[in-house]
Amino acid sequence: MIKFFLVIYNILFTLFLPLIVFIVLLSSTYRKEILYKLSERFAIYKLPNKNLKKTFWIHCASLGEIRAVEPILDSFKDKYYIVLTSVTKSGREYAQKLQKADFVALFPLDIHPIMSKAFNIIKPDMLVLVETELWPNMLYVAAHKKVKIITINGRISNKSFKVYKKLKFFWNKFVGLINVFVARSKDDVDRFTFFANEKNKITISGNIKYDKNFKLNFKRKDLFLREEDFAFTAGSTRTGEEEIIIDVYNKISSTFNNIKFFVAPRHISRINNLIKILEDNHIKYSLFSEGFCSNRFILVDIFGKLQSIYAVSDVCFIGGSIVNKGGQNPIEPAAYAKPVLFGKNMDNFKIESEILIKYGGALVVKDADDLADKLKRFISDKEFLKDTALKAFKAVMSQKGAVAFTIKQIEENLNA
User: Fold this and answer.
1) What's the mean pLDDT when you consider all of the chain?
2) pLDDT at 256 over 70
């Protein structure tokens, strides 16, 4: 039965691929993404000479997951031959700069002949999938070649689960090929169990993103912030949220003349649209790329700087949470001891947001008025600001330990 489903999947993937490529090529932004190192999408790889070390292939969706597995790469880079792949251009570029893997490449197209070719070149002893990277051909080829498969930091959001659940007849055939699931939470365990079978080992590690080294050699002066300035950062904002942030800015900027707003959209490709919104609202702004920011509203137009900005901010807002996009990772600002604000839509980081709320390190906001009111309190009440920041940091510290557990699981299964 699994071969039947695989044939249908490959036929549909192959038929729709030209249409998908055509649509993507119409966008100047995504055109760069798809044309970047295109040969790697077809598993045209040339690996450096492999030694006698065991090989494990670790696959991440994008930049965020690669950042999360850095401690694991550090632990294994001298012991094993590591192949690191990413779906996205930004992830691959970041992985290359890290220089913590023996070979870095883009993820090949999940078409059976191409995926088989990739496995024949890489010859992994273990396939490590980060979070929710479920690719039918990849799973099937790995199992067929007797490659051990382990999912780490495994998660399935509630929204995604509803989709997967409707296709259980398909997904349980492929998810069942995974040998070990190391999941982030009990909710994730329950969701993986729904598709798994008695042969699968499922355990809880916690979230490895808590264990990242969050130390940065970055100071407030690097953003030209004065000691008396109050820096508010809205990170990974989505369509519809920038107008809310602008409304908040208008509500409080006249009262607090020392405030600085840093707004970093989730997708840099939207910068020109945001500039138009700011100009339509008569907001004086600076672009982060300009260096010294003379205006109090700064639009972050450079990719990869958000973590540094979080580190020196006073309060941080998590985008994708007032609009229904599931939110983004709230751990980074909390790890830098920053009070965290987000909307009610944090399904993608449900456990993380609940932990922060439980510790008192995060507050939920409903709309522009609510966000403005809470921000005013942080600006006016220094003790409240300090107390909430400390609680956010304690929440992160309480969850550490997932990396050590995950490393143990990988080594036990790799050497079994």
Assistant:
1) 92
2) yes
Nearest one of 339, 342, 326, 319 to 263, comparing CA atoms: 319
- CATH code: domain 14-206+401-414 is 3.40.50.11720
Domain extents in the chain: 14-206+401-414, 220-397
* Predicted confidence band of residue 268 (pLDDT cuts 50, 70, 90): confident
Does the pLDDT of residue 28 top 80, yes or no?
Answer: no
Evaluate if pTM is beyond 0.90: no
Look at residues 319, 365, 320, 313 and name the one whose alpha carbon lies nearest to residue 339: 313
Fold of the 220-397 domain: Rossmann fold (3.40.50)
- Three-state SS letters, the chain: CHHHHHHHHHHHHHHHHHHHHHHHHCCHHHHHHHHCCHHHHHCCCCCCCCCCCCEEEEEECCHHHHHHCHHHHHHHCCCCEEEEEECCHHHHHHHHHHCCCCEEEECCCCCHHHHHHHHHHHCCCEEEEECCCCCHHHHHHHHHCCCEEEEEEECCCHHHHHHHHHCHHHHHHHHCCCCEEEECCHHHHHHHHHHCCCCCEEEECCCHHHHCCCCCCCCHHHHCCCCCCEEEEEEEECCCHHHHHHHHHHHHCCCCCCEEEEEEECCHHHHHHHHHHHHHCCCCEEEHHHCCCCCCEEECCCCCCHHHHHHHCCEEEECCCCCCCCCCCCHHHHHCCCCEEECCCCHHHHHHHHHHHHHCCEEECCCHHHHHHHHHHHHHCHHHHHHHHHHHHHHHHCCCCHHHHHHHHHHHHHCC
Section 172-193 average pLDDT:
94
pLDDT digits (tens, 9 = 90+) for 389-401: 999 999 999 999 9
pLDDT at 102: 95
**Do the domains at 14-206+401-414 and 220-397 have one common CATH topology?**
yes
pLDDT at residue 310, as a whole number: 96
pLDDT of 33 > 80? The answer is no
**120 burial level (CB within 10 Å; 0-12, 13-18, 19+):** exposed
Two structure tokens written together for 26: 């119409």
Interatomic CA distance for residues 210 and 68, integer angstroms: 8
Please write the tens of the pLDDT for every residue from 119-167. Answer: 999 999 999 999 999 999 999 999 999 999 999 999 998 888 999 999 9
